[in-house]
Amino acid sequence: MSINNHMDKLFYPRSIAIIEAASKREWQVLGIKNLNYQGNLYLVSKNEEEIAGIKCYQDISDLPDKIDHAIIVVKRDRLRETILQCIEKKFYTLHIFTAGGAEFDEEGIKIEREIYEIIKKSDMRVIGPNCMGIYSPEGKISYGPEFSKKVGKVSFVSQSGDLTTQYILRSNYNGVFFSKVASIGNSIDLTISDFINYFNADEKTEIIGVYFEGFPRFQEKEGLKFWNALKNVKKPLLLLRGGISHQGKRAAVSHTGTLAANDRIWDAIYKQTRALRVETFEELVDSTLAFNLCQNLYPKVKSIVLITWSGGKAVIATDQLVRLGIDVPEIAPSTQEKMKKLISIGSVKNPLDLPWIVRREKFPEICKLAIKEDYIGGSIMEAGTWRNHDERFFKYFENILKIYEISKQLKKPFLISLPPSQFYQNREKFKKMLIEKNIPVFLNIKRAAKAFLNLFEYQRKLRLF
Amino acid sequence: MSINNHMDKLFYPRSIAIIEAASKREWQVLGIKNLNYQGNLYLVSKNEEEIAGIKCYQDISDLPDKIDHAIIVVKRDRLRETILQCIEKKFYTLHIFTAGGAEFDEEGIKIEREIYEIIKKSDMRVIGPNCMGIYSPEGKISYGPEFSKKVGKVSFVSQSGDLTTQYILRSNYNGVFFSKVASIGNSIDLTISDFINYFNADEKTEIIGVYFEGFPRFQEKEGLKFWNALKNVKKPLLLLRGGISHQGKRAAVSHTGTLAANDRIWDAIYKQTRALRVETFEELVDSTLAFNLCQNLYPKVKSIVLITWSGGKAVIATDQLVRLGIDVPEIAPSTQEKMKKLISIGSVKNPLDLPWIVRREKFPEICKLAIKEDYIGGSIMEAGTWRNHDERFFKYFENILKIYEISKQLKKPFLISLPPSQFYQNREKFKKMLIEKNIPVFLNIKRAAKAFLNLFEYQRKLRLF
After folding, report:
1. B247 contacts A316? CB cut-off 8 A
2. Chain A residues closer than 8 Å to B349 by CB
3. Integer CA distances (angstroms), A260 to A96, A100, A113, A245, A398, in order
4. Helix or strand holding residue B263 (H, E)
5. A183, A133 in Cβ contact below 8 A?
6. Which of A202, B65, B141, B329 is the most exposed place for a label (fewest CB within 10 A)?
7. Contact flag A160-B312 (C-beta cutoff 8 Å)
8. Which H or E element spans position B382?
9. CA triplet A69, A75, A81: central angle to 5 degrees?
């Protein structure tokens, strides 16, 4: 059976088994139940009769053969025998949840080597050990009961379970939904590159995210496979890498027991493939949001119009943008003349500092004059949270929508910075209203700027390869 | 009269006049009324009889002489005559709110020069033009009706009004309160260094914040004065500077019309004085919070214990910390042995990745073993927002308090990163609970780390000068 068939069984399983299920890990069952899973869900438990309303089987041997996806949660000293049982029952795919492998001690390395050899000889494909597994809202399987039922266009593969959980929750909270997610931990069988290849071919996936910590211990060819996978990718691929520093590498070995890559290869990867360099968790969350909402709004020039609410913050933000390599060019004098005809006070050079007129009809008009200039790649606007969502606020909101529509017609991204506020409930509402209108929102101008850079970088790559 | 007497009159005025007051700027009156101002508040308006319940005078000549503080809001072409009237009435201090000075055009520069010459010859001291003025909760004067009535220990002087407003609101929201704040805009008379000197001598001020954009146009000696003021400062001084890049300078000239300083002097300032380099608005907010809560908890070593909730985020955060120059050293093997006796799984090397035991009694014990090591300067813990504030949550919260108490006894800072969460209301509550217990909270590990660096840097400076 091809790897793609196995992948299909991971993300769209018609039958699932959890070995051993336990009430104290009821969430594993609920993750699947809550998504209204329609296939057969089998639980195996020696100690419990029923979990979350589902009857338990005593032993794997009581299960039917050829189960699509089995989740193994036994202690590490029972891994070998359990895996052998699964092979005998011709299960298609396995998720080894069990931790205590190569990330923990010498004994763990030994166990991993043993099960690696067993799996290699079988037809079964495996994710893990030491991982959370699969979230596929379309396939109605989820390892977390809190994840959204909504199907989206982002797919993600990761070597950290909890990072994956936080990424899904933060993205859901940002109105971003997923097609397929795999937390694969120590990845002794299926590797990150296997998932990249699958996501690249998958029509439902439009944006790929990767959290990489190191190459698996027993797969010597994964380096080259990874490189080739990235070379072939034709979609935006956000690549967050952990374990870069010496001390970070130590943390990575304790975490997934994988071996970190040679540092030099990474510059080549980011230079010669569509992989985009993401340096922090926050940037991963932000850029996912940006790509989710700004498809086909990629900036052609690395320069922006900055629209602010505060002269001082405009000055600091300009410094920050320039430091990041983004230009904040002075608007052409002839255009400034046109803009000045519409106002009596405020600066229109860029940044546009026009807090007095944000509710007036001429506000989007003035912004348009600057945004449509051909040396401008897009715009970032710092918005404010209002104490009251009254008529005045809604006029302001409408103006923002107008600037978005103008930007969209010009095929330029329009990003909003909405800083924290003591009126946090209104901030939440406002943020939601903006995202529902497809306008991405960030916590500050710098974070919006980092997302802008990734959008720019992707359109540059689009032209190159 | 000495400059300190004038400063006292700015921050503790016994009489205030607003010239011209207007209902559309009622907030200017309310800012003072809401703080229960006890002195005499005079409003001057040619058009209105009463504003916010206070009777208006027709003209400055109707006011008593020797008013402590007058706020001037007339159009720029009436500035000259109004200031002359104020001098005639022997007013002590003036706040020129009026914009349209050197920041706007050539005519504005001309007007500023004229009024500068007039003021120079008078006994009156002036802040502005183009600024928001004074907030002094103890003196019961405030330019913003939303600012807290609570008196705190931070004083701030700034060349941006709206940045100041946002800084006050964000700090209040963080549980940080102010002693004295002055937004002084184009600063043609009283300058940033005058305020630094005053705050340095002021017993009520324990932390100083400065937003600097450029030296005033008409005061040639301000550079040297600024340098001397900083040399003399004996308190933590957070210095945020705008207008560093070429394009940022352009924005600064449009904003306050001041002249940017030679770049080279800044390295010397940060190296040879107690001024701490703050590069972003967010860092200013964060470091103010850290200094407000961590007085006398300054790290002696630039290295931390990182306590996390997620292996993957621990790896990325370690990379970030190392990039910032913070060490995340492996805990000594003998100490690790002691720690391992308390757990069966998880990493104790540093980062400590122990999500399973955060509610157990041994959690603070394990942390203590690492934090008390003499090569450790302090700790950063990534906390999570809980879906329910139930008994389990409160056990977790108690453990955090224990780690804080342990850190405090060891005189080491303990900083919390609490990322955004879909349970944002619980996040708000949790944040407030932590800050009330004097534990500073940041949006992510990197921002906590930047605050840690400033705390470290300050204790280093403490030993040097």
Report:
1. no
2. 250-251, 254
3. 22, 19, 18, 10, 50
4. none
5. yes
6. B65
7. yes
8. strand B378-382
9. 65
- The domain A296-464 belongs to what CATH superfamily? Succinyl-CoA synthetase domains (3.40.50.261)
Mutation target to probe the B interface, by most B beta carbons within 10 A, among A186, A316, A388, A427 is A316
Q: What are the pLDDT tens digits along chain A (465 aa)?
A: 899 999 999 999 999 999 999 999 999 999 999 999 999 999 999 999 999 999 999 999 999 999 999 999 999 999 999 999 999 999 999 999 998 877 778 888 999 999 999 999 999 999 999 999 999 999 999 999 999 999 999 999 999 999 999 999 999 999 999 999 999 999 999 999 999 999 999 999 999 999 999 888 888 889 899 999 999 999 999 999 998 878 888 777 777 776 666 667 888 899 999 999 999 999 999 999 999 999 989 999 999 999 998 788 999 999 999 999 999 999 999 999 999 899 877 788 999 988 788 999 999 999 999 999 999 999 999 999 999 999 999 999 999 999 999 999 999 999 999 999 999 999 999 999 999 999 999 999 999 999 999 999 999 999 888
Cite the residue boundaries of each domain of chain A with CATH code 3.40.50.261. Answer: 3-291, 296-464
Contact A327, A351 (CB under 8 A): no
Query: B200, B180 in Cβ contact below 8 A?
Result: no
Instruction: Select from B132, B170, B315, B350 the residue whose CB has the most chain A CBs within 10 Å, as the one to mutate to test that interface.
Output: B315
Q: Identify the sign of the CA torsion B458, B460, B463, B464.
A: negative
Which fold would CATH assign to domain A3-291?
Rossmann fold (3.40.50)
